[in-house]
Amino acid sequence: MAQHKIILDTDPGIDDAMAIFTAMAHPDIELLGLTTTFGNVSVDQATQNALTLVEMAGSETPVAQGVATPMIKPLAEFPDFVHGVDGFGNLNLAPPKRTSLPQSAAEFIVDQANQNPGEIVIVAIGPLGNLAQALQLDPELPSKIKQVVIMGGVIASDGNVSPVAEANILSDPHAADKVMAAAWPLVMVGLDVTHQIMLPRSLFDRIAKENAKVGSFMQSAAKFYIDFYSSVRNIDGCYSHDVSALAYVVHPELFETVSGPTCVATEGVAMGQTIMSRYGIPYMLDYWKDRPDQSACMGVDDAGVVDFFETAMTNSYWS
Prior knowledge:
Elements: E1 4-10, H1 14-25, E2 29-36, H2 43-57, E3 63-65, H3 80-83, H4 105-115, E4 120-124, H5 129-137, E5 147-150, H6 167-171, H7 173-181, E6 186-188, H8 191-194, E7 198-200, H9 201-210, H10 215-233, E8 237-239, H11 242-250, E9 255-264, E10 274-276, E11 293-300, H12 302-313
């Protein structure tokens, strides 16, 4: 029996596809549903992509469509130079036959939390508008959630959309700040660790050989993603962003964390920065006062995360 009941909040996205397939195939994960958001692509495209991945995998995982825009800041242009216009490296796949649920992503999260109190881990690998909206629907939600694990943020390393900001947080900083302020146990799996984990091009070649169901798709989509990273980071591979959040849920021993109350800057030059008060010092500014401690990953066994991904993508689920 699976040990971890997960809702995967996602904006697929090539690295999201890696995480979605991993969640479907890992024997210790029960994937309750996918909730979609804008981010790498529009929410409509993200929902279509999520349904396509479910269909491709032969899964019955439900998909609920979520927020289309940030809470307050204007919607930014989608990063088609990273993921392609279609989110999958411009593969232009046929549209899926199935459809999303009639309820919204936030409603799905709240309903599932009430049906499974204290059991669900929300793994959020896109902007955090759906979680913020779910908190508005049910202010008691944090007491019903086992844990929130987000791929997002950066504490001490450099950002990827500004010197201090990570893309998912900057996409909707006001929502992210509300999520950080909520009294649920939250772990950031951000750039401090994901930029230490490289998935080499050769790994996707191996997956394509061993996974007849989705391996060739993953190889083709990853090529676009890897070509982008090769051009900007001088690596022959891509970073393991979204998969790392799932790895934390199943194998937290692979990570080292720090903790402290955390705020998100919502305007100005530092917009999107995740600022953790982790030294126990009483500062003159009191933004962190009365906020719960949250955690952030700062160290990682990178080989362990790569093995986690490869094993899930080549196990018997795909036979």
